[in-house]
Design a protein that fits this description.
transmembrane; single chain; mainly alpha; globular; 15 helices; cell membrane; amino-acid transport; two-stranded antiparallel sheet; 4 strands; ABC transporter involved in vitamin B12 uptake, BtuC
């Protein structure tokens, strides 16, 4: 039972990332009808926002400490971050330590701006083009963004630490009545799951309970009628593209301590996230979230040694097998709508 609970936790952790990226993908497809293969790059850029802010906070100046010497007897050079010089060692150290959560505030305007630039500068010209054209141009954009990140940050993963208070592990089993150390799980992964739940809940609440969200949902259902009512639905859809970019970026920011950011991490998640969207149903926001967590849990169970000893390599293909089975039985996905991507 403890192994099952641990795999469920691992699955919810993976599913949180899948669901957040798939949610943004579905927002863009549902509003603009664009298959955006550059969405994984937005996840990557969000992770590197956390890297960038951490580097900014660690910009230092050098001083000579006469009281300390190296092995040759020379006075040692000490680097002091400017943030500690301005706010004091205690407050400055805390700001550096909490750089990843603070990167949430840092990344939101950046990701929204990138989303606006992408939509207005490139993607708007492909609204009425075939989906194959949209896939090609956005995939090319993703490669360009990936190479830009590689040029400025290098090809190696960049470790990005979580705040010190969340670097340990939580004895989850004791809370459920198991023996101590039966189910140990990292604090930050639990934080990531809670963060994903808040973001997903916030997006659904925004679409469900605000006037702006209601108009967007109406536009997703019948764009022409909304335009006939005198509402500039295109402007609202552009804003939704920026929000979707921000969702992907925030997912990347908080994922940075879990998986050290690297230039190809967006591509690693992109294909799986598109499978999630297709399984959940193209254009269905609840379907994207449901499929994200479902496939995350299935992938986690498939990675168990007991399962891999019977079916070697099953953890690498389980998501695609499930996708094939679901699409054979439900061609529109779990919660897909009639008419979406159907000629």
């Amino acid at each position: 039972m403890d192994a099952i609970i641990l795999q469920i936790l691992n699955g919810l952790d993976k599913g949180s990332a899948y669901a957040l990226i798939a949610l943004g993908l579905t927002l863009i497809f549902g509003t603009l009808g664009v298959v955006n293969f550059a969405h994984g790059a937005l996840f990557m850029i969000g992770a590197f926002c956390a890297v960038t802010l951490q580097r900014i906070f660690n910009i230092s100046y050098e001083t000579i400490d006469e009281s300390r010497t190296d092995f040759l007897g020379n006075p040692m050079t000490v680097k002091t971050p400017y943030i500690e010089h301005w706010f004091g060692p205690e407050m400055g150290g805390a700001i550096i330590d909490w750089s990843v959560p603070l990167a949430i505030l840092f990344s939101i305007p950046i990701m929204i701006a990138i989303g606006f630039i992408m939509e207005r500068g490139l993607i708007k010209h492909f609204y009425k083009r075939p989906h194959a054209d949209q896939i090609l141009v956005t995939f090319g954009l993703a490669i360009v963004l990936q190479e830009i990140i590689k040029y400025f940050y290098g090809a190696n993963p960049i470790p990005t630490g979580a705040p010190e208070v969340f670097r340990g592990s939580f004895d989850f089993g004791v809370m459920l009545g198991f023996d101590p150390n039966a189910i140990i799980y990292p604090y930050w992964r639990l934080v990531y799951f809670a963060f994903a739940a808040v973001i997903i809940g916030g997006v659904f609440a925004f679409l469900q309970f605000t006037t702006f969200g209601m108009v967007v949902r109406a536009g997703m259902a019948d764009r022409e009628t909304v335009q006939l009512l005198g509402i500039n639905i295109d402007k609202r859809f552009t804003i939704m593209f920026g929000i979707a970019a921000a969702v992907a970026g925030l997912a990347g920011v908080m994922y940075a301590p879990i998986n050290s950011p690297n230039y190809h991490m967006g591509m690693d998640f992109l294909v799986l996230s598109f499978v999630v969207v297709v399984v959940g149903g193209m254009g269905s926001l609840p379907g994207a979230v449901l499929a994200g967590f479902l496939l995350g849990v299935l992938e986690s169970f498939a990675s168990m040694n007991e399962i891999k000893s019977i079916l070697p390599g099953i953890d690498q293909i389980i998501i695609y097998l499930v996708a094939i089975i679901i699409l054979l039985t439900r061609p529109r996905g779990l919660m897909g709508r009639k008419g979406v991507m159907e000629d």
